[in-house]
DNA sequence: TAGGCCATCTGGTCCT
DNA sequence: AGGACCAGATGGCCTA
């Protein structure tokens, strides 16, 4: 009794392995292990079980699509036929969403963030925002490396690598966001007023209304509403500006980000909002920029309109 | 208890 | 024709 009947359907998996991963995940789920898929949710839903039971008994019907039928045709079909078609469609949709979740988990795995049984996984929106900022940050790092290479070899080669990207340590994002406000404190090893608190960022100020990030002092305690702004990748000026511009809903969404376990391990006295386990090295150490938005703000890409749109939509979704 | 997050159901639309 | 994709609705679970 599992959703194997759903997996038998041919579909467009997000990757060639998705089907296999999905099956494995479903096995785990069936055995009570909250694995990669739906780890925060219990999958033992009575209606699903009912669906699956029905599916196993109605496996043979043709894949007529219910929505393709006219109302007249629908009336001609028996209750059982309609139900079996509906179940089949539901099953496909379920599998599709499972595949999406598997992909989302795959994304979580490669993000510089907590993975562990004691750490609640990132929400979907947080995962996407984090991924985006991570990509921006990596791109920025790459550009910086290119720039350094061109500086080193430029005198000989005449500067073959043309990179015009420089760090903007203090640039205000949209809506009065100023990520630079907390940068010095973070990279300077703490000190400075606030240590990333109240950050001056729309989202951050929502979550940290003035307290010195007490959540980071707690071992194995998660404060989803507290840590989001502390994570460098989620506090990028871009995401922040979008959040502060779009709606309180998105800000609320962003607050769902869970902390990196490293952020929780030790006091934050001298390490800024990331905690002492996170080592900021700014841009001075070997020229490599610190992979956090505090030490290195990604170059401001042209504000993609679709991002703003999707963000606003997410905001509206989250405000349901 | 409220709010956030999520899975699922459902009907519509688009694509092959 | 059939499947994928999408978005709204709904209800459950969890946490503050």
UniProtKB/TrEMBL annotation:
Among SMART domains, the record links this protein to:
HLH
List the GO molecular function terms: DNA-binding transcription factor activity, RNA polymerase II-specific; E-box binding; protein dimerization activity
| Keywords of the record | DNA-binding, Nucleus, Transcription, Transcription regulation
Q: CDD domains from the entry?
A: bHLH_TS_OLIG2
Q: Where is this region: Disordered?
A: 298-320
User: Record's superkingdom?
Assistant: Eukaryota
Provide the BHLH domain boundaries: 84-138
Record's GO cellular component terms? nucleus
An example GO biological process term is:
axon development
User: Can you name this protein?
Assistant: BHLH domain-containing protein
Q: Please give the organism.
A: Muraenolepis orangiensis
């Amino acid at each position: 009794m599992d959703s194997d009947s759903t997996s038998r359907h041919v579909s467009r998996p997000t990757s060639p392995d998705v089907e296999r991963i999905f099956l494995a995940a479903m096995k785990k789920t069936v055995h009570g292990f909250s694995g990669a898929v739906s780890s925060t949710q219990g999958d033992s839903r009575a209606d699903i079980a009912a669906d699956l039971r029905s599916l196993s008994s109605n496996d043979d019907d043709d894949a007529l699509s219910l929505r393709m039928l006219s109302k007249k045709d629908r009336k001609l079909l028996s209750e059982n036929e309609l139900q079996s078609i509906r179940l089949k469609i539901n099953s496909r949709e379920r599998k599709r969403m499972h595949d999406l979740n598997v992909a989302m988990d795959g994304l979580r795995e490669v993000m510089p963030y907590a993975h562990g049984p004691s750490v609640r996984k990132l929400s979907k929106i947080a995962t996407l925002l984090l991924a985006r900022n991570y990509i921006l940050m990596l791109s920025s790092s790459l550009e910086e490396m290119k720039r350094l290479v061109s500086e080193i070899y430029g005198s000989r080669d005449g500067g073959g690598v043309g990179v015009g990207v420089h760090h903007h340590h203090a640039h205000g994002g949209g809506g009065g966001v100023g990520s630079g406000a907390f940068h010095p404190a973070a990279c300077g090893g703490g000190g400075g007023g606030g240590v990333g608190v109240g950050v001056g960022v729309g989202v951050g100020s929502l979550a940290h209304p003035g307290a010195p990030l007490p959540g980071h002092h707690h071992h194995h305690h998660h404060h989803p509403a507290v840590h989001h702004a502390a994570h460098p990748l989620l506090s990028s000026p871009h995401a922040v500006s979008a959040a502060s511009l779009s709606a309180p809903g998105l800000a609320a969404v962003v607050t769902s980000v869970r902390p990196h376990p490293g952020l929780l391990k030790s006091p934050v006295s001298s390490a800024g909002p990331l905690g002492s386990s996170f080592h900021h090295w700014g841009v001075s150490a070997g020229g490599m920029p610190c992979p956090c938005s505090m030490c290195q703000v990604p170059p401001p890409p042209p504000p993609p309109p679709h991002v703003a749109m999707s963000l606003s939509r997410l905001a509206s979704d989250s405000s349901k």
